[in-house]
Design brief:
single chain, four-stranded mixed beta sheet, binds guanosine-5'-monophosphate, 45% helix, five-stranded parallel beta sheet, binds adenosine-5'-diphosphate, alpha/beta, Rossmann fold, 9 strands, globular
């Protein structure tokens, strides 16, 4: 039986290493399709439009919402972020595992719409290390970092909604662990009900002597 693609939602505190992990996961394994989100935040140094994000104005973003062009969207630290619908639907139909790297409000909406989605929450090994990573990235002001840490305190309250936590200490170990979690998740009975029902029916036919 060929497994069909699943929707994988990856969330985690700002600076936990989600972007770094996704990049490495995609380099190492070619079975994943990463959704590129739309945002109204300013590009960081080194980010390009269409690669890390589609960078748009508030008006363009609101137009996309009106057109029902987003699977979900949320406001995070004063900016809009959202998942374009077309790409996700196309890749799932092709049988690919599609990754959405999104924050918690969006993750909860996706879980409501797609109950079979796999929700993973990336955590740093400690809060000291989180701060070191946020400061070390050097892309936000101290004020924005404080806002993001404040948001992390709120996000920490909802971690139980996720299926697994992923602790990003050693990057390579973490990438492999994440890949293994995804592989194992494909074989959860609830994600294979068609296959199971077919086998049940075949067994019934067999016992009827057909
Ligand atoms: P996020 O996408 O979760 O906000 P990033 O991927 O931008 O986080 O990572 C934040 C910073 O931490 C970056 O400077 C990145 O190079 C660094 N980083 C990520 N993962 C690790 C790791 N396993 N060990 C050490 N530094 C890391
Ligand atoms: P950053 O500005 O650090 O790139 O992202 C800020 C937060 O927005 C992160 O938690 C990231 O996962 C989240 N995010 C990125 N894209 C989306 C999206 O399409 N939808 C939602 N809900 N959150 C997103």
């Amino acid at each position: 039986m060929k497994n069909s693609g699943i929707l994988i939602v990856v969330s985690g505190f700002s600076g936990a290493g989600k972007g770094t992990l996704m990049k490495r996961l995609l380099e190492k394994y070619d079975t994943y399709s990463l959704s590129i989100s739309m945002t109204t935040r300013e590009p960081r140094l080194g980010e390009t439009d269409g690669k890390e994000y589609f960078f748009v104005t508030k008006e363009q973003f609101e137009q996309k919402i009106t057109e029902n062009g987003l699977v979900e969207h949320a406001v995070y630290c004063d900016n809009y972020y959202g998942t374009p619908r077309n790409y996700v639907e196309e890749q799932l139909i092709k049988g690919k595992d599609v990754i959405l790297e999104i924050e918690i409000q969006g993750a909860l909406k996706v879980k409501e719409m797609f109950p079979d989605a796999l929700l993973l929450f990336v955590m740093p090994p400690s809060i000291e290390e989180l701060r070191r990573r946020l400061n070390g990235r050097g892309t936000e002001t101290e004020e924005v970092i404080e806002k993001r840490l404040q948001r992390a305190t709120e996000e920490a309250e909802d971690i139980e909604a996720y299926e697994y936590i992923v602790i990003n200490d050693d990057l390579e170990v973490c990438v492999d662990e994440m890949h293994q979690m995804i592989l194992a998740s494909h074989n959860v009975p609830a994600r294979n009900m068609k296959f199971i029902e077919n086998m049940r029916n075949d067994l019934k036919d067999l016992s009827k002597g057909e």
